[in-house]
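Sample intake sheet
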Amino acid sequence: MPSKRRTSALRSMTGYGAATSELDGMVVGAELRSVNHRHLNLKMRLPSEFAAFEGDLDSLLRKRLERGSVMLSMSWTGRAGARPASIDFELLERYRTDLEAARKRLGVGEGVSMDTLLQLPGVLSVPDEEKPDTKRLRRSALSVVDEALERLIEMRTTEGEAIRHDLESHAAATRKVVGKIERRMPTVVRTHQKALEKRVGELLGGAGHLQPGDIAREIALLADRLDVSEELARLASHLDQLSTFLSRGGRLGRKLDFLVQEIFREVNTIGAKCSDTKVSHWVVEAKTHVERLREQVQNVE
C-alpha cells in the first residue's frame, strides 16, 4: 500500500504574485507571473535602478522555483509630493525609432506603447539626491521580490492541490479499468482457443486426422500472443508508484511525466495484443484517463 505521508505539497507551474514597499517616498513594486515550461526559464524587466541586482534576484528565484517560465517585472515610482523622475527624451526617441523600424521590417503587431517605452532601461531616472544608497535599495528590492515570490508559491500550491485531486481521480479510474481487463483475459484466451479448434476442424473437413499435439501447439502460440500479464503487472506497479508520488508531494513534474508516458505505453501495448471487443472498449476508456493524466502532469513543477 502506498504511503500516505506527505512531505511537501504538489505545486503547479502557473501562478501570480505581487508586492510593493515604500523607500524614501518612492514605491518599489514587484510582479511575478509564471506559466508552464520544461525547465526554469527566468526573464526580468527591471528599471535601471535595480539592474545591478539582477544576479541577486536570479539567485533568490532559483532557490525557490524549479520549473516554469517566470517573468519578474519591477517598478520604481514616486508618491505625491516626491520630486518627479526625469525622462531621457533623446534615449526614448532612439528606442522608439529602432523598435518601429524592427516592427516594420518583421511585419508584426502594432506600434510600441508609451508604457513599454518608459519601462526600457535608462528612460526614467530619479534625481540623485532622492536615490537611497545601494545597500538599502538592494535590501528593499530583494524584500519586495521575496514577498511577491511567497504569493506566487501560495497560488502555485493551491493550483497544485487541485491538480493532485484530478490526477488521483483519473489514476483510480485507470486502475479500475485495468482490473476489468485483467479479469476478462482468461475468458478471451478460452474463447480464442475454442474458435481455433473450430476453424481447424472445419478446414480438415474429415480429410485427415488432427493430431492433439498440433492443436496444442497452435493454442500455446495463440495464448502467448494474447498474454498481457507482464503489461498488466507493470501497469499495476506504475499506478502504485504514481499513488506514492502523489501522496508524498514535492517537485515531481519530470518524474510524473516519465511515469505517465510508461503507463500510456503499457495500455497501448495491451490494445495492440488483444482484439477482444470488450477489452478494446476498455483500452479506449483507459487511454482517455491516461491522456488526462498526461495533460495534467505537464502543469506540475
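Comment: Strands lie at 15-23, 26-35, 40-45, 68-78, 86-87, 124-125. Helices lie at 54-64, 89-106, 114-119, 134-204, 212-226, 229-248, 253-273, 277-297.
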